[in-house]
C-alpha cells in the first residue's frame, strides 16, 4: 500500500479496455508512443493489454514493459493458469510488473456464462492469485460484475483473494449499473466486513453506461478505495470507462472536499487527450469536460462580461492547469533544423537524428503550402512519417477530376510489395472514385464502416486528418492519413487501413471466451 | 406542482443554453424542427431562448410558442423589468407560457459582476418575480451560481422568490463546481429551512465541468428536487449541461432505487440525438453514454460470449428502449412516391405535398448514385432541400482537378442575388481551392475555424456531411452540406455558412451583460 493514506493510485486502462473498443485499436508503435505519454502524465500503473488475447497484444505488453520504466505495467489474465503464465511472460521485464487476474462473481454471470458454482469460482480465484503470486508480489484481483454480486459472497471472494496474496483488489461496475451512493455503500460494506482488507489497496473500475463512471469512482474514494481504473478521454467498452482527466481534475479542484491527491502532472492532460485523438482519429465532442474544445470557451455575453471583470466568476480551473495553451503557433517557412529539433524535444518526443531529418524534410514541404505550422501539424508528421512501419501498400500518384457536372474519376499509382501498379476508377464522389481505384489495384473489397475528416487546425490550408474504418470478419480496422489535400489524405488513410489489416491478419486476436 | 409526487419534470434547454455554445447555433427553421422533436420526445418544458438577447432569439421563441402546443414554453430573462416584458411578448401565445427570470446570488458575482449588495439583489429578485407574475402564474426564478452562494442567503432569496409568486425555483450549479453529496445536502438544507418551499417545484441546472452534471442532478432528485434542466447530447456552455438522455435512462434503469418517473417517451431518444447532430453537424463521441455509436457495441470476446448466452449478462437496457433499431435500411431505387411519403410520415415529419415532391426528386437522384437509402439520407435531404430558406448565394457548377502531382484547382459557378458569376481558384488541396474560388466570387474572406466531414452511413458511396465554422467578429457561424461528393458537400457547407452569416447580420445578437 501507499505509505500516504490520502494518495490515490491512477491505473490507466486506455491501452487495454480503451483500445479494445470499436475504432480505437492501435498498432504496436502507437501503443508505445501513447504509453510514453502516460509515463510523462504520471500515471501509477499502465494496463498495457491482455496478452493471451492475441500475439499483437502479447508483443505490445512486452515492449511497453521493456521500454516504459516509471509506471508499473499490468497485464490482464483470466483465472486460467495458462493466461497467467502468458501474462507474466509478457510483463516480467518491467521495472515493476503487475499481474491482473479476474473472474466474474455475480450469480447471473456464474449461471449463464461460466456455468460454475460460487464454490468453484472462489476456488479458481484463490488458485489464480496464488499462481500469480509465485511470479510476483504485485498481484491484482478483480471480481467482475461486482456491483451485481451477492454482497456476502463478494466479501468472501475479496477476503480469499487477499488471503491468497492479492495486494490490490478491484471492484468493477462492469455493466455501468450502479449509482454513487449505492456504490459508496458497497465499498464501505467491504471495509466493514472483510477482515484482511487493510492488507490490500481497494480499486474501482466503473463504466459509464448511465453517465455515472466518474461520480461512482469518486464516491468509492470517499469510502476508502485508493485506486481508480480509468482511461484518457473516457474511452472503453460501450460508453467507456471513467475519464482520467475528470477524476483527476475533480480531486484537484475539490481538494477541500476530498483531501486526496494523485501523482498526475495535470499540465500534461490536454496533450495526452490530443495524442489519443490524433492516433485513433476519433475526436472528443466539443463539450467534453476538461479536454473538449469548448471546455474553457465562454460564449454567452453575461459570462464573458463576468470573466472580464474577474476570472473566478465563471472559471473554476484555469486552462493552463491542464496544459491548454492560449497560443500554439510554432514555426514557419524559415525555421531551421535546430529550431525544429528543439521544438520536437519540448513536445516530449525522443527522436533519432535520422528521424528528425525525415520530420524536417516533411516540415519544409508542408511549410511551402501552409503559412503557419502548429504543434498539431508536427504531431501529424511524426505519426505519419516516423512512427509508421514499412508497408505492403504504398501510394505513389493520385489524380482526381470531380465536380457536380462530371463523373468523379481517379487515377492511382501504387507500390504493392515493391511492384508499381496503376489503375483508374470512378464513383459517386472523388473519395469513392479514389477508393475504387485502390481496390482494383489491391484486389480488396472491405466494407467501409466509417469515414471522417477533421481539419487539425484552423484555416483553409489546414491539414485534413482522414479516418476510415473497414470491416474485417467480425472486427474492424481503422486507418488514418494526414495531408492538406483531403483526397490524398483519404487515399493515405484507406491504404493505411489495408496495411494494418495485413498486420492484423498476421497477429489475429483469438476469440477469448468467459470460460 | 405536479399532483404526482414521484413525477419529475424534464426542462429541456438545448435551444437556449445548448444553442448558445460555440458551433451549436441554429436558424429559425432548425429550432422549430428540433422543438417539434422535443414535443414528440415528451419533454415537459422547452426553454426556447433568451428573447432580449437578439431579434433572432425573440423570433424563434415566438414561433415555437405559437407552433408547439404540448410542452410548456419558457423564455429566459434577467431580473430587468424590460427583459421580462420582452420575454412575455415572445412567449405569450404559447398554450402554457413560462417566464424564467434569473439573477446571481453568490458573493463573488455580486461583488465583481453585479456590484450590488445582497439586499439590492433580493429586492431585484422579488420585483422581477412580481412583475412576471402580473403576466402569468407560471414563473420560474433562478439563483445563478447558487452552489457558491452563502447558504442562509440562498434560503432567504428562495423564500422571497416563492413568496413573490414563483412556482418553480431553480438552483443552478452555474460553474459546474459541486459534487453529488454536497449538492444533495444543499437541496435538503433548502427543504429544511425554507418555510414556503412546498409552494414551488424545486429545479436544478447542473453544468458538467467536472463530469458531475448528471450525478448532481440525480442526487438533488433524491433530496426532493422535481425538475431537471438538461439538454440533448449534454450540450451547453463550456462542458455542457446534464445530458437529458442520461438523466432519463438512469431514472428508468434504476427505478428500483429512485422510485421516480418522467414523461419522456424513451424510444424517441436516439432520433432526438441524431437530429441534433444532423442540424449542428457536430457528432457525439462514439463512447457517449446512451446515444454514442459504441454505447451498445460489445467488442470484447468475453462480453460477446456472454451476450450470446444471455443478454442480461452485459446489457442493462436494450438499444430498442431508446429507439436504436438494428436495421434501418429503408428504400431503394425502385421505391415509389407513396412509399417515400409514408416513410417520411413514420419518421415524424409533417411535410406538404410540394415538399414531398422536392424530397422525392432528390431521392431519385440520390438512388441513381447510391444503392441503399437510409433514414439518415432522407433526413439529410429534408434538411438540405426542404428546411432551407431562399439564399443569397447558390452553387451552380463545381469542377475540381486535384492529386499529389497537380496544383489543386477548382472552377465554380454561383448565383449571387440572382446574378451568375464564375471564377477559378487554386489551393493546398481541393477543398482549399474550392473555397478560394467561392471567396473570389462572393468577395468574402472569413477565417475557417473548423472543417469536418462525416459519412452519414457506411459504404464508399455514402453521403458526406460537411460542417464548417467561420469566424465572424467575436462570434462564429456554422454551415453544413450533404452530398455523395465530398467536394460538392464542402462547397455547399461553405456557401450555407455564408448565407447564415447574412441572416445573422440582419438579426445580430446584442452583447447582453450581467448588469
Which terms would index this structure?
alpha/beta, homodimer, 515 residues
Task: Describe the protein.
- Helices cover 41% and strands 20% of the residues of chain A.
- The first copy, chain A, is built from 18 helices and 16 strands.
- Chain A has helices at residues 14-18, 28-41, 55-67, 81-91, 107-114, 118-133, 151-163, 180-193, 213-222, 244-253, 255-258, 269-280, 301-309, 337-346, 353-369, 375-386, 430-442, 486-506, and strands at residues 9-12, 45-49, 72-78, 97-104, 139-144, 168-173, 201-206, 227-230, 329-331, 373-374, 393-403, 409-416, 419-426, 448-455, 464-472, 475-483.
- By secondary structure, chain A is α/β, with parallel strands linked by helices.
- Chain A has an eight-stranded parallel beta barrel, surrounded by seven helices. In chain A, strands 11-12-13 form a three-stranded antiparallel beta sheet. A three-stranded antiparallel beta sheet of chain A has the order 14-15-16.
- The model of chain A has no long low-confidence stretch (mean pLDDT 89).
- Chain A is globular, with a radius of gyration of 24 Å.
- The interface between A and B is large, with 128 and 128 residues.
Topology:
The structure is a homodimer of 515-residue chains.
Chain A (H helix, E strand, L loop, with lengths): L8 E4 L1 H5 L9 H14 L3 E5 L5 H13 L4 E7 L2 H11 L5 E8 L2 H8 L3 H16 L5 E6 L6 H13 L4 E6 L6 H14 L7 E6 L6 H10 L4 E4 L13 H10 L1 H4 L10 H12 L20 H9 L19 E3 L5 H10 L6 H17 L3 E2 H12 L6 E11 L5 E8 L2 E8 L3 H13 L5 E8 L8 E9 L2 E9 L2 H21 L9
Parallel strand pairs in A: 1-2, 1-8, 2-3, 3-4, 4-5, 5-6, 6-7, 7-8
Antiparallel strand pairs in A: 9-10, 11-12, 12-13, 14-15, 15-16
Helix pairs in contact in A: 2-3, 2-12, 3-4, 4-6, 6-7, 7-8, 8-9, 9-10, 15-16, 17-18
Amino acid at each position: 500500500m501507499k505509505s500516504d493514506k490520502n494518495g490515490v493510485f491512477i491505473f490507466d486502462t486506455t491501452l487495454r479496455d480503451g483500445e479494445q473498443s470499436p475504432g480505437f485499436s492501435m498498432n504496436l508503435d502507437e501503443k508505445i508512443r501513447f504509453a510514453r505519454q502516460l509515463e510523462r502524465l504520471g500515471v501509477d500503473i499502465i494496463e498495457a493489454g491482455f496478452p493471451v488475447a492475441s500475439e499483437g497484444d502479447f508483443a505490445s505488453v512486452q515492449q511497453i514493459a521493456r521500454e516504459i520504466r516509471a509506471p508499473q505495467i499490468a497485464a490482464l489474465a483470466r483465472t486460467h493458469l495458462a493466461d497467467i503464465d502468458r501474462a507474466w511472460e509478457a510483463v516480467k521485464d518491467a521495472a515493476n510488473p503487475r499481474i491482473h487476474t479476474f473472474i466474474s462473481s455475480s450469480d447471473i454471470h456464474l449461471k449463464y456464462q461460466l456455468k460454475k458454482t460460487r464454490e468453484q469460482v472462489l476456488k479458481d480465484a484463490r488458485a489464480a492469485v496464488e499462481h500469480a503470486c509465485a511470479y510476483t508480489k504485485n498481484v491484482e484481483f478483480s471480481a467482475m460484475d461486482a456491483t451485481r454480486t451477492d454482497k456476502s459472497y463478494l466479501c468472501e471472494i475479496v477476503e480469499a483473494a487477499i488471503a491468497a496474496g492479492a495486494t490490490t483488489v478491484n471492484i468493477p461496475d462492469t455493466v455501468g449499473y450502479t449509482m454513487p451512493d449505492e456504490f459508496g455503500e458497497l465499498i464501505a460494506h467491504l471495509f466493514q466486513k472483510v477482515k484482511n482488507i487493510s492488507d490490500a489497496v481497494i480499486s474501482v473500475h466503473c463504466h459509464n453506461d448511465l453517465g455515472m463512471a466518474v461520480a461512482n469512482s469518486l464516491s468509492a474514494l470517499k469510502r476508502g478505495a485508493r485506486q481508480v481504473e480509468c482511461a484518457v478521454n473516457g474511452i472503453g467498452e460501450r460508453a467507456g470507462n471513467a475519464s482520467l482527466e475528470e477524476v483527476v481534475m475533480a480531486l484537484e479542484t475539490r481538494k477541500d472536499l476530498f483531501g486526496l491527491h494523485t501523482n498526475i502532472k495535470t499540465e500534461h492532460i490536454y496533450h495526452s487527450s490530443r495524442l489519443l485523438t490524433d492516433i485513433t482519429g476519433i475526436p472528443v465532442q466539443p463539450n467534453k469536460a476538461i479536454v473538449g474544445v469548448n471546455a474553457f470557451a465562454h460564449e454567452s455575453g453575461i459570462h464573458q462580461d463576468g470573466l472580464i471583470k474577474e476570472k473566478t466568476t465563471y472559471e473554476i480551473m484555469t486552462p493552463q492547469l491542464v496544459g491548454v495553451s492560449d497560443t500554439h503557433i510554432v514555426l514557419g517557412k524559415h525555421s531551421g533544423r535546430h529550431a525544429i529539433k528543439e521544438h520536437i524535444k519540448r513536445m516530449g518526443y525522443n527522436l533519432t537524428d535520422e528521424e528528425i531529418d525525415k520530420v524536417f524534410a516533411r516540415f519544409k514541404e508542408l511549410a511551402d503550402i501552409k503559412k503557419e505550422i502548429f504543434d498539431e501539424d508536427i504531431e501529424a508528421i511524426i505519426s505519419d512519417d516516423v512512427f509508421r512501419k514499412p508497408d505492403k501498400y504504398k501510394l505513389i500518384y493520385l489524380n482526381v477530376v470531380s465536380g457536380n457536372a462530371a463523373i468523379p474519376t481517379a487515377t492511382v499509382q501504387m507500390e504493392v510489395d515493391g511492384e508499381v501498379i496503376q489503375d483508374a476508377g470512378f464513383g459517386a464522389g472523388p473519395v469513392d472514385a479514389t477508393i475504387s481505384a485502390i481496390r482494383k489495384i489491391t484486389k480488396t473489397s472491405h466494407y467501409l464502416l466509417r469515414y471522417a475528416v477533421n481539419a487539425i487546425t484552423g484555416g483553409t490550408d489546414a491539414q485534413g486528418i482522414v479516418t476510415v474504418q473497414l470491416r474485417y470478419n467480425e472486427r474492424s480496422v481503422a486507418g488514418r492519413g494526414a495531408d492538406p489535400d483531403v483526397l490524398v489524405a483519404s487515399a493515405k488513410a484507406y491504404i493505411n487501413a489495408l496495411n494494418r489489416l495485413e498486420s492484423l491478419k498476421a497477429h489475429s486476436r483469438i476469440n477469448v471466451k468467459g470460460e
